[in-house]
Design a protein that fits this description.
By secondary structure, this protein is of the alpha/beta class. It folds into three domains: 61 residues, Beta Barrel (OB fold (Dihydrolipoamide Acetyltransferase, E2P)), CATH 2.40.50; 167 residues, Rossmann fold (3-Layer(aba) Sandwich); 68 residues, Ribonucleotide Reductase Protein R1, domain 1 (Orthogonal Bundle). 30% of the residues lie in helices and 23% in strands. The chain has nine helices and 15 strands. It has a six-stranded mixed beta sheet with strand order 10-9-8-13-15-14. Helix 2 packs across helix 9. It is globular. 35% of the residues are buried. The structure holds guanosine-5'-diphosphate, magnesium ion (MG) and zinc ion.
């Protein structure tokens, strides 16, 4: 009886999966037939065991429990998401960014902010940096250094020192500079950059796939991976209505020191008197844009609850 091998799915195209085995080898195989029967689909990022079918071919035999999973792009066990916010062209939409950050926090994914295109609008880059630093996020800035690359050695060092055993990915609006960053950090990958028209862009994205690249080749050390996620814009993340409005305050990390300190125990932190969060917004220790995003998301989730009850 051949031994069972453990590994990580690094690529999946048309039902054929590439698995980076713990032994260092790579194997290409399909999933056990019973998965389809049970409606289970292996995701890139899954930790799996590889066994053998009756004909002696390797097959994915078991998928280990996921820490989290995203639907678009299909990706499991993401640890860190770099949220790329461009200072200009396009000017980052902070509401969309905060929604993405909230979903990441809810799924145990650490959001890290990267401000791009500061060279096009220094003031806005500074404003975004202050906003997110105040909330306790790690914030990086990347600046264009020649026609096709950005200066990102601080991000590279951070990845090497802190994320070499984790799975990380970039997310951000189309045109924010994700591919440029990916290329500048890891030139060996040769990711396609540049703006694509909406129409062509969509067509192209559907034909490309998520792929994990091993940190051992990208930064020379570690068991982790960096995900290339073509078309990973803010809106393609998990469905927002997956969580409840009661879970929302915990996804705004700068609220944490205020939770439990409001006058009303059931305070929603939207308009109540004696609300510790509102007080912090007033004295500017919580950025106004973050609280505006909170209220916006709260209202969306509130409507969802009403709708659920009507059903
Ligand atoms: N001025 C400036 N342009 C940038 C910067 N980063 C990326 N770009 C340009 O913005 C465009 C879109 O970048 P790309 O990496 O393809 O964005 P993506 O859609 O997020 O992958 C390209 O023309 C890049 O050269 C930056 O920091 N400053
Ligand atoms: Mg791109
Ligand atoms: Zn409150």
């Amino acid at each position: 009886m051949p031994e069972i091998l453990m590994g990580r799915i690094v690529k999946g195209v048309g039902g054929l999966y590439d698995i980076a085995l713990d032994s260092g080898d790579t194997v290409s195989c399909r999933a056990k037939g019973s998965f389809r029967h049970d409606d289970v689909k292996p995701y890139v990022g899954d930790i799996v065991s590889v066994g053998y079918d009756d004909a002696g071919n390797p097959v994915i035999a078991e998928i280990k429990e996921r820490k989290n999973s995203l639907i678009r792009p299909p990706l499991a066990n993401l640890d860190v998401i770099f949220v790329v916010l461009s200072a200009k062209n396009p000017t980052a939409d902070l509401l969309t960014a905060d929604k993405l950050i909230a979903i990441a926090e809810h799924n145990g994914i650490e959001p890290i902010i990267v401000i791009s295109k500061g060279d096009l609008d220094t003031d806005n880059a500074e404003k975004i940096r202050k906003t997110y630093e105040k909330c306790g996020f790690t914030v990086f800035e990347s600046a264009m250094c020649d026609e096709n690359s950005v200066k990102c050695d601080r991000i590279y060092d951070f990845i090497k020192e802190n994320l070499s055993d984790k799975i990380s990915a970039f997310a951000g609006a189309s045109g924010a500079g994700k591919s440029t960053l990916m290329n500048s950090l890891f030139p060996s990958l040769g990711i396609a950059t540049g703006e694509v028209s909406q129409k062509i862009g969509r067509g192209r994205h559907t034909t490309r796939h998520v792929e994990l690249f091993p940190m051992s080749t990208l930064v020379g050390t570690g068991s982790g991976f960096f995900a290339d996620t073509p078309g990973f814009t803010m809106l393609d993340f998990v469905r927002f209505d997956f969580f409840d409005k009661e879970d929302l305050p915990a996804t705004f990390r700068e609220f944490s020191e205020h939770i439990g300190k409001c006058k009303y125990t059931k305070c929603t932190h939207t308009r109540e008197e004696g609300c510790s969060v509102l007080e912090a917004v007033k004295n500017k220790s919580i950025p106004k844009s973050r609280h505006e995003s909170y209220i916006d998301l709260f209202n969306v989730l509130k409507e969802k609850h009403k709708w659920d009850k009507k059903q």
